[in-house]
Amino acid sequence: MATKKNVIQVEGGSTPASSQRVFTPTAEAKAGAKQNRLLAVILWVLAIVAEVVAMIILFKKDPEVALTTGKRVLLIIFLVIDLILLIAGSSFWKKANRLDPPSKASALFGIQSQLGVIMAVICFLPVVILAFIKKEYLVGAIAAAMMIGGGAASADYHPASQEQYAAQTSEVEALTGKDFVYWTKSGTKYHLYDDCRYINTSKTTDIFSGTVAQARALKNISELCSACKDRVMKEKGISEEQLQQATDAAKRAIDSSQPTEPQTTAPEE
Fold it and tell me: Would you say residue 123 has pLDDT above 90?
């Protein structure tokens, strides 16, 4: 039974079933990632400019003479601007990584995935050190708190990788024969059926559809609905062993970075 909800097809991401086992983003996704990374860099540069202004105010201060209230307020304002620009830049960077994820095999995977955290240290640690040298302990404490908060907000707690995308896509293809899923605006899982009871509810108005990579890139959804998985396995007569064999074959293909033939997981009718 099909859903009566408004199903919105996301453009630019559909690929033929089993056309590839090593994830490669579309040209559109690559362009979007490049744009988001550029915006992230621009915002981070502006954050560093705000940091430099704050450091100039501190550098000119006599360690034995407290800052005036006006200068202290101005300094904190620049630190707040620094924090806002840092977090905004990190959000663009994380979005770029979801559009064009790095490979876990890369030595720079950790750096690329958590560059926002590194930028939080760069944008605040010098201020913290200088503030304590200049005996502005309150300013130093505020800057330290902003560094920790900004780092927490900039961290990617579910970093995307090419291997993860390929494995998740392979699982969906093994179950349905194509890379096509459904998700909602506020959902945390992608689905194989548009009438799944978890998305076909009175609270849902729109259901989005597209590839696994699009669900991750647009909403950072990285988990398959267990109810949908159980339902398709029951309907197609796919056993856990058959699914595991198909998944293992896909993983081997991913590890070898070579295309593989489509795997038959359901018994022929």
Answer: yes
